[in-house]
Amino acid sequence: NYQYYFTFIDSFVESSEIAFYGLMLVVKYFTNSFTVFLLVIAFIYYLCLNYSIAKYAKYYNINYYLGYLLFLSMFFNYSLSMNVMRQGLSVAFLVVAIAINYGQKNR
Question: Minimal CA–CA distance to 53: which of 96, 101, 102?
């Protein structure tokens, strides 16, 4: 459970999720609030998706709002944003990487 890890993390943990635990430590250092941690995760998640959808909308010449609505209405959006936060962040970063790759291929 993420709240348990957030509450009892005091130093860097040897794990494969280095960036996630690092983010936990940074948020805990400044606020020590699990709610703020969830807010930071949601902000990063939706910022990455917003950037990617804007790039795709420009590349494919489609309506930005329609693309955003389509992603938000998909069945896994809520699950990725709250239930499996680490995997949701990794998917968001993957989508950003693909969007950047699309922009570089066509130059």
Answer: 96
* CA separation for the pair 97, 34 (Å, rounded): 28
Report d(CA 89, CA 41) in Å as an integer.
8
| Long-range contacts, 62-65 (Cβ 8 Å, 24+) | none
Residue pair 18/26 in contact (Cβ under 8 Å)? The answer is no
Read off the pLDDT of residues 62-82 as tens digits, 9 standing for 90 and up. 898 988 888 888 877 777 766
pTM, full prediction: 0.80
What is the residue-wise DSSP string for 40-84?
HHHHHHHHHHHHHHHHHHHHHT--HHHHHHHHHHSTTHHIIIIIS
